[in-house]
Amino acid sequence: MGAVTSSIRGAFSAPKPKKVLMLSLDNVGKSTIFYRMQGNETAVPFPHIGIETEDIRHKRCTFRAWDVSSQAVSRRMWSSAFPDTEALVFVVDTSDRERLEEAAEELRTALAHDDMRGCRSVLVYANKQDCDGCLSVAEVTSGLGLPRVAAGRKWTVQSCIATRSIGVMDGLDWLEASLIGDA
Ligand SMILES: Nc1nc2c(ncn2[C@@H]2O[C@H](COP(=O)(O)OP(=O)(O)OP(=O)(O)O)[C@@H](O)[C@H]2O)c(=O)[nH]1
Ligand SMILES: [Mg+2]
């Protein structure tokens, strides 16, 4: 009887969404990516301070994406959003070479935090690939020091033009595979 009850419960209860935290320096295109992930091809984000969350169903996975605003004043509060994170989406503005080191420092700090121990996957969007002289995927990978900083986790760098929805869904494909176990 117990077995029947639990199998019925299992059939009706949806799996818990996997928490995906989105972080970046400010103005890099993170909210634009957040909207494209939801299938909204036209939304233009407005600057906000705080956190927006949305459940995104993608293939076999439901993600609860957290878009954490990156105004310098609120970056110190990022860590309050860390607990229960299963994957980190980190967005880099590849047209802004000057701030790659600052981005690397923020990524390093976030991944080293105790409350990020459960974060198994790191997806980096190398965004604004439509801009002249932008950083390549290889430059972003080495500039962030990813093999070292994300050691022990699955990670990838996805080339992206969020405003044209290019590369966003490829990133979600990787995230889904990495959290389900194929990647
Ligand atoms: N050229 C170009 N511009 C982009 C791209 N993606 C986003 N942008 C622009 O970058 C600006 C910032 O985009 P947001 O999505 O608001 O950036 P954000 O990272 O959420 O900014 P914060 O909320 O301040 O953290 C906007 O003007 C976007 O239109 C892209 O792929 N290429
Ligand atoms: Mg934003």
Please give a quick description of this structure:
The protein has 183 residues and is α/β, with parallel strands linked by helices. The chain has one domain (16-180): Rossmann fold. It contains seven helices and six strands, in the order αβαββαβαβααβα.
Q: How many β-strand stretches?
A: 6
What's the helix-strand series? Answer: HEHEEHEHEHHEH
Quickly give the CATH architecture: 3-Layer(aba) Sandwich
Biggest β-sheet description: 6 strands, mixed
Characterise the protein shown here.
The chain has a six-stranded mixed beta sheet, with helices on both faces. The chain has a single domain (about 15-180), classed as Rossmann fold. The protein has seven helices and six strands. It has helices spanning about 1-10, 30-35, 70-75, 100-110, 135-145, 145-150, 170-180, and strands at about 20-25, 50-60, 60-70, 85-95, 120-125, 155-160. The chain is globular and about 50 Å long. Magnesium ion binds near residues 30 and 45. Magnesium ion binds near residues 30, 31 and 45.
